[in-house]
């Protein structure tokens, strides 16, 4: 099967007043549709930097990025945000839900960014994905009224609503106790079985078992691939 994502010789520098920090060094990665990839490494090793580049949230300095067969190196901000809306869902450690909105409105947000979807269709999709994560009954509640695990499920529903090719998760269980974290990993595994590509960052060696591929990164270099 073809790679959905290919990075070729990617380098990333953070340019600061007095120094340039070489955050990613000649990174080469191939990710296939349906992979469950984990990116592991110590704090400061470059995991989030790599994830942000893969998810079109940040740029890189040289190298080549092929996404879904298309060279996406050097796209402008508008083109990148279109790709994000169309193909990518994000899940974060701290959920990033908006507390002034209801659960239903939070899940609906990516559809509003996409535009041109009639309200009836939006409602059907919100209900479908809230149901998928088992929280349809919370639709009119506020995020702060839910547990951490429930909030992460809502964030997963929000990540799924655009039917993305790839889900990026940066420490999705990092703010949860271990049994709630296991529930979230099982939900991600179920999505992966339906051929969603999942790319997850974690510190937690115990979570390696959920992945079919693990990339270890150290000081901006891929040290080992399992
Ligand atoms: N916006 C930035 N400006 C300058 N340096 C940065 C910036 N973001 C990250 N860095 C540096 O780049 C390196 C990699 O950071 P990154 O956030 O990718 O690490 P990480 O592996 O995600 O760490 P953690 O496990 O703590 O989240 C670190 O040395 C960090 O200090
Ligand atoms: Mg990080």
UniProtKB/TrEMBL annotation:
<keyword id="KW-0067">ATP-binding</keyword>
<keyword id="KW-0547">Nucleotide-binding</keyword>
<dbReference type="InterPro" id="IPR003439">
    <property type="entry name" value="ABC_transporter-like_ATP-bd"/>
</dbReference>
<comment type="similarity">
    <text>Belongs to the ABC transporter superfamily.</text>
</comment>
<dbReference type="InterPro" id="IPR017871">
    <property type="entry name" value="ABC_transporter-like_CS"/>
</dbReference>
<dbReference type="GO" id="GO:0005524">
    <property type="term" value="F:ATP binding"/>
</dbReference>
<keyword id="KW-0813">Transport</keyword>
<dbReference type="InterPro" id="IPR027417">
    <property type="entry name" value="P-loop_NTPase"/>
</dbReference>
<feature type="domain" description="ABC transporter">
    <location>
        <begin position="5"/>
        <end position="225"/>
    </location>
</feature>
<dbReference type="GO" id="GO:0022857">
    <property type="term" value="F:transmembrane transporter activity"/>
</dbReference>
<dbReference type="Pfam" id="PF00005">
    <property type="entry name" value="ABC_tran"/>
</dbReference>
<dbReference type="InterPro" id="IPR003593">
    <property type="entry name" value="AAA+_ATPase"/>
</dbReference>
<dbReference type="InterPro" id="IPR017911">
    <property type="entry name" value="MacB-like_ATP-bd"/>
</dbReference>
<dbReference type="GO" id="GO:0098796">
    <property type="term" value="C:membrane protein complex"/>
</dbReference>
<dbReference type="GO" id="GO:0016887">
    <property type="term" value="F:ATP hydrolysis activity"/>
</dbReference>
<protein>
    <submittedName>
        <fullName>ABC transporter ATP-binding protein</fullName>
    </submittedName>
</protein>
